[in-house]
Amino acid sequence: MNSKNKSQAPTFYDLGVVSQAAAKLTNYACAISARHLQDGVTRSIFNREVAYYARSIVSDVEQGKKTVAEGLIEIKKEQRSLLDQSITIGRNGIGAVAGALQIATGAGICYASVGTLCLVAGVPLMANGANNLYEGGHNLVTGRSDTVGPVRTAYQSVASAVGHGEREANMAYGAVDISLSIYSTVRHIYKPDAWRLFRYLDSDRIRAYKTMTPTSLAAEAATDAITLKQLHEESKK
Question: This protein's superkingdom (predicted)?
Answer without folding.
Answer: Bacteria
